[in-house]
Amino acid sequence: MALNRDFIGRTFPPTEPYEVSRVKIREFADAIGDRNPAYRDPEAAKALGHPDVIAPPTFPIVVSLGNPALADPELGLNYAMVVHGEQRFEYTRPVRAGDVLTCTSTVTEIRSIGNNEKMVIETDITTADGELVCKTYNTIVERGA
Description:
Number of helices: 4
Strand order of the largest sheet: 1-3-4-5-2
Number of strands: 5
Largest sheet: 5 strands, antiparallel
Order of helices and strands: EHHHHEEEE
Oligomer: single chain
C-alpha cells in the first residue's frame, strides 16, 4: 500500500527536550568505536576550541530517533518492511555536553520506486534557546509497499 501523500510538507511539533551529557556522548563514542579524546576529555575538547566535550558527527541520530511521523497510523507505514536508505547531517556547530536539544521534523518527500516507497524526513535540531545546531536528512524505504 502506498504511503499517504498528504504527509508531504507536514511538520510535526518539537520533541521533548533531550539533555546531552558527557556520559551519553562517551557511550555513543564507545558504541561506534571512536576513541577521539574530544568525545571524552573536556581538556582535549577545550584545546580544540570547544567549551566542553563534543559528540561524534552521527550522534544526532540518538536525539532524532522515534520520529513522530513514522508512528502516525495515517501515514500507512509498515515499519517491519522499512530499511534505512540514507542519513546525512549538516552542522552549524558540534553537539556538545550540556546542550538541551529538540527536534522538529518535516516530511519533504514521498514517492514510489518500483514496488517500494521512499520517504525523506528533514529534522532541525535546535537548542532550548532556538539555536540551530544541526539539520538531518533521513531517507527510509518501505519494501514491497
